Each structure stands twice: as C-alpha cells, then as structure tokens.
Amino acid sequence: MARQPVLVPDSEGAGRFLPWVIAVMTFLATLMTAGALATDTAIRGWSSALTGTLTVEIAADPDADMDARVAATVTLLRTTAGVRDARPLERAEIARLLEPWLGRNGLIDDLPVPRLIDVELDDAAELDIGRLAGRLAERVPGARIDDHTAWLDRLVHLARGLQFLAAGIVLLIGLAMICVIVFATRAAFAAHHDVIEVLHLIGARDAYIARHFQNHALAMGLRGGLAGLALAALTLLPLGYAAADLGLPVLPELSSPPLPAALLLLIPAAAALIALVTARTTVLRALSRMP
Amino acid sequence: MVRFENVGMRYGRGPEVLRDISFTLDAGTFSFLTGPSGAGKSSLLKLLYLAQRPSRGLVTLLGHDVSTMTRAGLPALRRQIGIVFQDFRLLGHLSVLDNVALPLRIAGDGGPRVRDNAVELLEWVGLGEKLQARPTTLSGGEQQRVAIARAVISKPNLLLADEPTGNVDDHVGYRLVRLFEELYKTGTTVVVATHNKSLVNRFQHPRLVIENGELTDVSGVSRVS
Questions:
Q1: CA A31 vs CA A196, A243, B113: distances in Å
Q2: pTM for this one?
Q3: Domain range holding A79?
C-alpha cells in the first residue's frame, strides 16, 4: 500500500511493440540529424578553408616570358591593400596537382600549363576583387582571378538543400511516431475500457486517468528512445572513424562547440516527450466523449 | 437530496427508455427501486450515478442541478456517490485492499489512513483475511462484499446498489439489505434496485416501481407535483 498501484494495467497488445517502433524511429531520426549536423560541419570547413584566399591564374603563352608575368603579378598583388601574401606555385607543385589526370610521366613539361599564384587575404580588409582583376588584366596579359565564391556558393546551396531534406525526413518520422502512439494508446484505451469506466464513475478526473497512460507512454518512449540512440551510436561511431581517415565529416563536431552532439542526445528525450503528449491528448479526447 | 422532474432519457438517438420520471428522495432515507427486468431500473440508476445525463427534465443530486452542470464539475459530485454495480466491476489486477482503497486514492488521499480505513471495512464485511487476494480468486458473494466496501469507504451521501441480491439466495439477500440498512441509519441515502418482490416485501421501506420506462408506483416516496 505504500506505493501507488498501477490503476491501468500494462497493455498486452499493440503497446507491447511501441518501444521497438520508437527505437527504430529514433534511430532513423538520429542518423538524419547527425547527417545534417555533419553537413553543417563540412560547410563551415569549406568556408573557412576557402574564405580569405583566392587564386590568380596566368594562361600559358609559349611566346611570352611566363616567369616575368608571374613576377609582375606577384609584385602587383603584394602592393595591393588587403592582400597579406602572394605565392607563386612551383611547376613541381602544379605537376602534383595534375598528377591524378596526367600521371608522373613528364607529360606536363610538354603541355601549356597555366601558372598559378596562391593569394592570402587579410580577413579584415575589404578587397575590391573586381578592381584588382581590372588592374591585373591591364598589366599582365592572360591573368585571371578565381576567388572560389561561385563554386563554394553552389556547394553550400546543395549542402543546405540536403539539410532541409534531412529536416523534412525527421519531421515525417516525428509525425509517423505520433500516428503509431495514437493507435497504440487508442488500442490500450479500448482494451482497458472497463477499468477506465470504473475509475471515471467513482470520481476520477480525466487528468488523473490520463496521467496513468501518459506515464506509461513516457516510460516506453524513453526506453525506445535510448535504445534507438544506442543503435545509432553503434552505427555512427565506426562510420565516423572510418570517414575521418578520409577527411570526410560523418559525425558532428563533438568537442567545440558541444551543441551539435547535445542535439543528438536530445532526440530520445524528444521521442519520450512526443509519446507523453500524444498519449495524454489521445486519452483526454477519448474521455471527453464519456458523460 | 435527489429530485427528478419530468425526466426523460434516451441512448443516442434511440427511443426514450425513461419517460416523465418525477420523484424526490430526502437525505438519510432508504428506498427500493423495483420493477421487472428491462423496465428501466438500470437506466434510472445510471442517471443517479451520473453515467448518463437526462435527455430532458431536471435532475438535482446533492444540491446540484445535473442537467446544466459542466462536465468538469461531475467528478467531485461522483465522489459523493457510492455504487455497487450488478457485476461488481472490481479491478482484477489489483488486490482486494487496493480495490477498496481506490475511491480514497482517486480523491487524492494517499496517507496511511487509507489503508486503515480499507482494512477496517474489509473486516466489517468479513474479508479481513483476504486483503491481498485478487478479486478473481474470490467467490461471487465475496466479490460483492468487496464491491460494497469500495462503495462505502468514502462515506458517500448517496449509495446506489444495482441488483445486489440478483445472484444470491433469499437469506443472503436479506442479510445484504440489512447491511445497507446500517448505512442509511448513519445518514446515507440508499437506493437498492432489485426485481426481487418477495425481498422488497420483507421490509417497510419506500419503493419506486418502474415499468416500461415510467414510474407506476412511488409508495412512501414523495412525488414531485
């Protein structure tokens, strides 16, 4: 008598499988969220790698003194406000960049390969790239600026699209979870209608009866949510370590900032909360039809 | 205490199962509700224990107009009404003790007094040795006594019993009615529904006779003019 008795007995029917369904849905939602967060990490990585740099390309001209053109370009760049440094790439470095396509057979020596200059910009400075391009074109024939912006914009656009898709899938998973919980709660309500009617007739308030269902749903939601998170961790961690060797982000950053990892931990809590609110709402609606 | 004025009741959109029911029951009275099977006794009891609302007319229970009362106000009123269901409706997954303590727990009382009261009542009905038994392991008569203990534990102002003598012989039925008499002597208004005319005739209590959904006799019970 010290403990409060369970007034509505555990369901033997549809509710028995509810933790498993919630586990699967939490697993899928965690994978989707981790993917979206990892994409965010990747976007930030690309942006920080490419922001503050640009490349000047000087088209090959067999009749021109290319070294002189490179030197003129570097001089111009280094005297331009907002440019921290300009460094011409050696032919060996360019050869290494082209190695995947041309191989190591010395073919590059026979090809009219453009000369490249890496430019580092001052973050604070506001460089007018259009004006710099005009000055370069005047002084160095064949010089062209590639500031990576267009390419980065397209890549970020695609990545953001994938993030929205992941968010949409997580939303659908949440809606499906609500439907399943509504079904299971209705089934439990029907299975225990006699018990509920007795409680109702001897003076139990709707909230009192609903509390027994919502607590049961909360427990199942937490159990399922934690199982789903554990399953997701078992999937993501090995994948993350394997991908890290390739320099690909699969896991969101776990150290700094810690928010993304905390978001993943919140998913089981969200699943439990959805279970609680859905069960409560479903039972209260059903009870409201009783006199 | 209880006042019905031209009350009619129907289930859903079906025909009226009760028509023009009018009577009053004073506080601390004992009444039989009698009539043949299917006459409307259970429907009238459902109005009394607030399982149904009247389709028309006025029902006043314990000073409250049930016809116009909001749904939110009904649980508090139900707690003042004790019910012994015909089929007992004990919760099979709870012990006898927890079944009897249920109305007090629902009312928000979780203290040690709940156990003491439940034990005392179970001893009163002769089941002090079966506190932890499950209702399904008890005989029909024992289940009925548990149902009575549950109905009276919260000291209701109105006690309703639906065919409590239906499944017992006349001797046990007589003892049951005597049990209910003890309660009305303490100030509780008691209404016992039964179709057992011979049992009713053994007592001198007022009776409401219902036939085909209408009150045909209200011997000893005040009629509402």
A1: 39, 15, 52
A2: 0.76
A3: 60-141
